[in-house]
Specification:
55% helix, alpha/beta, Molybdopterin biosynthesis moea protein, domain 2, Hypothetical protein af1432, three-stranded antiparallel beta sheet, elongated, 10 strands
Length: 459
């Protein structure tokens, strides 16, 4: 046989016969194994395996009894679990006891299901060499496959960890984004509310009745939007803003025009009155774009009717949805609280008037969006006598402040020292603080509190 290249695998050769061990040693040296390990006794074989757990192959010959063979086999499996083994057993001669011993061990070994080969003595060197090389090749391929599987598992584990990390980072980014958007919405809401409150405060100084009408319409528009629970289509905060600002253009109408019923206006007064939606849009032209763009059309069309009888002759779905809501609330408030259609009337009569105008048998069409009207009428039915209360801030004295009152405006001393901010709920501690200012000779300038319309609806 030709000499082969050097093989680094460790191999253990053990047999009770020194001649067998020497023959095996010469064979495997010739095959290219660098330093085959040998043992002459069971104890030596066990010692070699204890010191060389990385054995690749061990070959041991038949012992005197099957128990000895089994014991050596079990020890080799425990000490070198990754090694493959070859068992050399006797097959001929008069030694029937040896033949019986080898047969019993072979049956036992087969029942173990381990990677193990049995070769009869005497062996053929070429066949044994071929068997060893095939077993080593098979083990090499198995190890290679196991390494690939291990690498694949590691890659898969790393990918899962990366996916988990990316998902966690994505969740964190989403939470940060949601938090930022919520903060921006809150800031925008506060800004919009401050702007609306400022306009209302100016309306209060210019035309108290107009301010009251504006607040009530904004309030009811928001309540209907909340009841609809469709914030994408009817955002409550924006409906409050557009409802509050829809008539700002009336601010420069002469008092005599503003207070007259609509059927008593002269042609010039009627033209000035009809221009108030356009005038409102012009006066609000400096509002932030995100607000101005959303409220222009509802303000322009808030006098349109579903039957096409409005000033712009818009019909049904041609009318902006927010404008349809403002139209209902606006008309109801004029019936209840203003002189636009004559003397103010009671709630029940105003509701009956709306219902009567909701549908015309002659035209087979009504003036109002039936879905929005029904929601509004249901809210009115649920409201109690507090609906009669005006919704503008109330001016009181410091002594009249009660725990639970909410400031409608910042509270300053006459020397312009800020005491409490708008929105503060008066507490016992707040009243003590105000008393201390008074005791120190500080005078409190104009105390405005919000009206108690938060309990407008029955519990």
């Amino acid at each position: 046989m030709k000499s082969r290249r050097s093989i680094p695998d460790k191999i253990l050769l053990f047999d009770p016969s020194d001649i067998v061990v020497k023959a095996l040693y010469n064979l495997f040296r010739h095959l290219g194994f660098q330093q085959p390990l040998t043992a002459a006794t069971v104890d030596q074989a066990r010692g070699v395996m204890e010191s060389n757990h990385d054995l690749t192959l061990y070959i041991f010959g038949q012992q005197k009894t099957p128990e000895d063979d089994q014991k050596l086999f079990v020890q080799s499996q425990m000490l070198c679990p990754d090694a493959i083994g070859i068992y050399l057993y006797s097959t001929g001669g008069d030694e029937s006891l040896i033949q019986q011993t080898s047969n019993e061990f072979l049956v036992w070994m087969m029942n173990q299901g381990s990677i193990f080969k049995a070769v009869p003595k005497p062996w053929d060197n070429s066949q044994l060499a071929q068997l060893v090389m095939e077993m080593l090749k098979e083990r090499y391929l198995q190890n290679q496959q196991q390494r690939r599987q291990q690498q694949d598992r590691q890659k898969l584990r790393a990918q899962k960890e990366m996916i988990t990390q990316l998902q966690a980072e994505r969740q964190l980014l989403q939470e940060s984004r949601d938090s930022l958007e919520a903060s921006l919405r809150q800031a925008e809401t506060r800004s919009n509310q401050s702007l609306t409150d400022t306009i209302l405060f100016m309306l209060q100084l210019a035309n108290l009745d107009l301010m009251r009408h504006s607040r009530r319409v904004g309030f009811w528009c928001q309540k209907v939007a909340e009841e609809l629970n469709r914030p994408q289509d009817y955002p409550p905060e924006l409906l409050n803003i557009v409802g509050t600002l829809h008539d700002v253009g009336k601010i420069d109408l002469p008092p005599e025009t503003f207070g007259l019923p609509i059927n008593q206006l002269s042609l010039a007064q009627q033209e000035a009155y009809d221009a108030h939606p356009t005038r409102t849009i012009w006066l609000l032209r400096r509002l932030p774009d995100q607000i101005r763009q959303k409220i222009r059309r509802p303000i322009r069309e808030h006098h349109e009717k579903m039957d096409g009888s409005g000033p712009l002759k818009r019909f049904r779905q041609q009318i902006d949805p927010w404008a349809r809501l403002i139209s209902i609330v606006n008309h109801y408030d004029h019936l209840r609280h203003t002189t636009k259609f004559g003397s103010p009337t009671g709630k029940e009569h105003a509701m009956e008037k709306l219902e009567a105008e909701a549908y015309s048998h002659a035209k087979r069409e009504g003036q109002y969006d039936p879905a929005l009207l029904n929601v509004f009428l249901e809210l009115l039915q649920e409201s109690n006598e507090l609906e009669e209360k005006e919704l503008e801030p109330i001016q009181v004295t410091v002594e009249q402040l009660r725990a639970g009152d909410q400031l409608a405006e910042d509270l300053h001393t006459t020397t312009d020292l800020l005491v409490l901010t708008r929105g503060t709920t008066i507490s016992t501690e707040s009243r003590v603080k105000l008393s201390q200012y008074l005791d120190e000779g500080q005078e409190i300038d104009q105390v405005w509190i919000e009206n108690d319309y938060h309990d407008l609806f029955k519990s």
